[in-house]
Design a protein that fits this description.
0% of the residues lie in helices and 46% in strands. It is mostly beta strands. Strands 2, 4, 5, 6, 9, 10 and 11 form a seven-stranded mixed sheet that branches. A four-stranded antiparallel sheet has the order 1-3-8-7, with no helix packed on it. A hairpin with a 4-residue loop joins strand 9 and strand 10 (103-104). The radius of gyration is 13 Å and the shape is globular.
């Protein structure tokens, strides 16, 4: 069955960086578009970034553009989100998703605080 497992969240100071991975299994990862969403406390889920099957096409929410980079390693069946210059407003649970079939991981919590 399709499984998406995020890891690599944690507490980081403002201005810091994190690169949570999402390990995919149970499907042909290289054949599917992937996305990262996030949900901050008390707010609706927000689409953070989108990546094509080959990784050559990406897009980002305005709130993270220039700071976050989505990537994928199709040999390792892994999706990444490089997050730089983190701000307190980036605090959220980050979810890896496969839009086709609406599959979601359980999420990883990122807390940005001094």
């Amino acid at each position: 069955q399709v499984q998406l497992v995020e890891s690599g969240g944690g507490l980081v100071q403002p201005g810091g960086s994190l690169r949570p991975p999402c390990e995919a299994s149970g499907f042909a990862f290289s054949g599917f578009v992937m996305r990262w969403y996030r949900q901050a406390p008390g707010k609706e889920r927000e689409l953070v970034s989108h990546i094509s099957t080959t990784g050559t096409s990406t897009n980002y929410a305005d709130s993270v553009k220039g700071r976050f980079t989505i990537s994928r390693d199709n040999r390792k069946n892994t999706l990444y989100l490089q997050m730089n210059d983190l701000k307190p407003e980036d605090t959220a649970v980050y979810y890896c998703t496969r839009p086709t079939g609406n599959y979601w991981g359980k999420g990883t919590l990122v807390t940005v605080s001094s």
